[in-house]
Amino acid sequence: MAALFCPQESRAACVWQAPSAEIGAILKHGDTVMTESTRSEPWLRATLTEVPAVHRAVLHTLQLAAEDLELWCSGLNAQELNARPSGIACVAFHVRHISRSINRLLTYAEGRQLSDAEAAALKAEMETKAVPEVVFAELHESLDDATRRIRALVGCDLEAVRSVGRQSLPTTLGGLLVHIAEHTQRHVGQAITTAKLVRSGRPD
Predict the structure, then answer these.
(1) What CATH number is given for 50-200 in this structure?
(2) What are the residue boundaries of the structural domains of the chain, listed by start?
(3) Which residue among 45, 98, 125, 157 sits deepest, i.e. has the most Cβ atoms within 10 Å of its Cβ?
(4) Which of 122, 136, 153, 117 is closest to 65 using CA atoms?
């Protein structure tokens, strides 16, 4: 797990510089450092310029998700990761849901329907016996896989018709890519808020 070298109070002072622009590098390399040139969110770093705008925006969103989850949630112990203050969903749920929903949405984006294994994974997201190392390893793998799959969709028609779920609800390839970005960030925000609530209960 990559180490943090900055205070948690300010994103301006807490942005990653990784040896690679790819998302997987954000969470795998322990030699990441902070510099003046990377004090911005991924979409403002002039990276991935070889990728078309829509695909690039999704990749930048996933990179930001990786950085924020690492910053705010990776330091939780098992009890904290599974805690449900006031009955809300635990941090483990949100991290698992991000990992697995990206996989499901990309399956639809590729014009396929969910496998039995993907459907079963959906039902297990709310389990409250998560192990931090396992949860974040799944996240790393998911983001690596998503990077590859999103790049593979470059050149495809964003208006191409796609269908979602058992009811085959209509959408487009572009719609699915945009939804991957906004849905991921929604759950990142919820995970961070829950992590802050859990940390507030730590003894002084």
Answers:
(1) 1.20.120.450
(2) 50-200
(3) 98
(4) 136
Amino acid at 164: V
pTM of the predicted model as reported, rounded to 2 decimal places: 0.80
Q: Mind listing the pLDDT tens digit of every residue in the chain (204 residues)? A: 333 223 333 343 333 333 334 444 444 433 344 444 446 999 999 999 999 999 999 999 999 999 999 999 999 999 999 999 999 999 999 999 999 999 999 999 999 999 888 888 888 787 879 999 999 999 999 999 999 999 999 999 999 999 999 899 999 999 999 999 999 999 999 999 999 999 998 887
DSSP 3-state assignment of 1? coil
Nearest to 197 by CA among 69, 67, 68, 90: 90
Nearest to residue 59, comparing CAs of 102, 119, 123, 118? 102
